[in-house]
């Protein structure tokens, strides 16, 4: 059926039977399919292919010409573990991991420099032959009897036709758009454990690898056919991969197809229809259920299933957001879902090779990109044009590159550590896409057929590189504003023969040379983030020396660097920097109320997030995901926050410095300026009172007070006087941090561990450690370093050596963390840590690392951010994602049934914006245009009504500025000119014989109004001669008919034809007789 429609649309075509020949043109076979011994196994090197398998020659004749084709194999190599799977209604039917080597490129043997050929011989010859003066398309004649034609009943008939044989029409374009899933970008929780200690370092350009699963639904199979669908999808994904290699992205991202699933039947747990939102939700859950957890991309798992980071569904359904009916939506994806197993997915409507732009766009949403012009300046007036992330595809869209806003979005996403699943490079990234431009393999007509069906053709040839116009099923010339594929033939006033490259028509055969980018110089250091207390300034460099062009690679490496500045301490009495940042939110409403905010000093929060406590209320919240650069991570640490991450600061206040404090808290010292005071207080003392343990002199550092065993006794701390700081006056304080004597004391009282009190120091006053005895004293250990006066550094008195520190705490409490064993330089006498420079660097052993806490985490609720409210007033609905999940690895989690989460399930839908909407103007329908021709007006009634349309208000309650017009000009066409309108003829003037009759003639307009504009030459007569029938009855009474003698004018009566009048006829009876 498709073939019959196809042939009927062509103005002219010919039939030909191609044959396989040798290089000299000698006949070899009618079989144009080149059967090689089996198909290529995955991973087979090009060098292993026999020379005879890589070159083919064909000959065919058409249009009075002979074509001798010289073709070279264009191997569609795929990733090492690439598989193609065909799924029926019960799941996987069969799969293969081999690829047909049936794509060839070449030229006409005697016209090397002026011709190009791109053919596939998978099922006969299918492709394009481009000569200097014409473009020929050839494809097998399908579903035709082998007894057909005059071709000696051998070989396979093919249809060959010229591109110029296709009719063209023109019609306005339609607008197509992309939707964005309302699912939240990431959980609104305080936990950062999902990063698993592997957060990507900020502002570094690293190469990323998106291992991609592509799924084609059964509608795709029905449209493209099982034999063609694999090659078609790989051609589309080739374009997607190229778009992500464009330098305008500002990052190096490789799209690698690792798995292709072709659905030949509907799947039980996968619902695909016109409703894009429901289809996407179903697909995301389905693809997660088939995700391979055994492979990480670096090795093929035992089950043979390749791992994927992102899933792409391609469908022939005309999808639409929010309803199960066709509309202009082309794709839908979750924003910032990349690397989240159930959100790293998209649905895309197949519109031919232009589907590549949709897929690239939707993957962009997965990377956290918003639409150009939505919440950013890109694509707005006065700024750069909208590009790949445009919300709507129009003629002004440039889909070949990324906007600066898209670049910022993906850079921020990757630098935040949310793209860690893309860091692993597959063992063998040998997915080699076809080197032939897609527009040379699929010409403009074939691209139209992909979009609008077998009868579609290109129908407008102007700016084809900007917009491809096609003949629709209703014979209209339409466009979805997507440009023709690169390599499509084009023509301009200055280029007689060209092809498309990035939306422009360039000379045929020219392709910009690929130039890799290199970093430019660093900019000068920026302003310091703080005026005192240790801030940071930054310096940037750009990939512009040179900038990558022609598909060249973007620069790898650090793009932004930081350094410490204004490290001097702030003046005494200065406000704490975090405290000030919290106070800045005092004038901003939180859930409709105003609070005074103080810094939250408790645990369980991200150190570089701004968590503030509402003064006078028992709650705290995260007011900002990141504090200002240069803010201390912890009050008793020199480490500072940069871009929301904690960065190490040496004791010399230099960012990234290796300088360490010694046991005396001297930066870079050797530990000789203090001595250790250590002891065990285990005296047997009476219960029921406070007893002194030890005095801590002013200036002491590294203070540690710890019970030997769990007891009912309490450690207390007071000044030299009777002022208690902790646990005084028989009142027990909650465990927390206490700011005492110029340092922070950490009081800890775990349920099943001994009580402790620790501080770094140095203390600014003398302190006394006490114990409140409520039972037998089981022993309290104390240790601190007291400053001493000593001449010299002590270097000659003491030795130093490298030591491994104890294993660090596990970076995660479950699902796989890591422990590190750092190597430090220590004094030999007491084992205190000193600067590394005191030890021999050549003898330093390596640090150690090991996994820990590898068991899965307990199930917990994943609570997403609320979506935008469906209405701005009158009560809308907002939703969020709520899932029961269990983390099973550092970057991997699984979704469980809700029953596995023990706590109450959070709500996922609630009402919002319940306030009444203000009155609004409501327009009734326009009246008909009056008058019926010429300039006129339409009128309508405009009412001020409530938003639910149930009440009508005075017009003054609605905005006069926004009032819609109540009258508009109109015209139903030009009015007819005025014309003469004759009336009915009057009575004849003669009762007998000839007379005259009159009528009225008026000049009237089309409305019936008198006018003076009628042409006088066309005026109808107003008088005409008439004749009345005479009465022949004789005069009564037998009187003789005679003229009255007295009347002498009877001859005149006859002359002037007055005999028809009764009087004159009676007076001149004889004269008038017979007249």
TrEMBL record:
UniProt keyword annotation of Thylakoid present: no
Protein's UniProt keywords contain Signal: yes
Keyword field: Calcium, Cleavage on pair of basic residues, Disulfide bond, Extracellular matrix, Glycoprotein, Hydrolase, Metal-binding, Metalloprotease, Protease, Repeat, Secreted, Signal, Zinc
Alphabetized GO MF terms: metal ion binding; metalloendopeptidase activity
Compartments (UniProt record): Secreted, Extracellular space, Extracellular matrix
Region span, Disordered: 182-204
Disulphide-bonded residues: 284-345, 320-327, 339-421, 378-405, 448-470, 459-477, 465-500, 490-505, 528-565, 532-570, 543-555
Record-annotated Peptidase M12B domain positions: 208-426
Primary localisation category: secreted
Annotated Ca(2+) 1 binding sites: 211, 309, 421
GO cellular component annotations of the record: extracellular matrix
Cofactor: Zn(2+)
Residues annotated as catalytic: 362
Protein name: A disintegrin and metalloproteinase with thrombospondin motifs 6-like
GN (gene name): LOC107685101
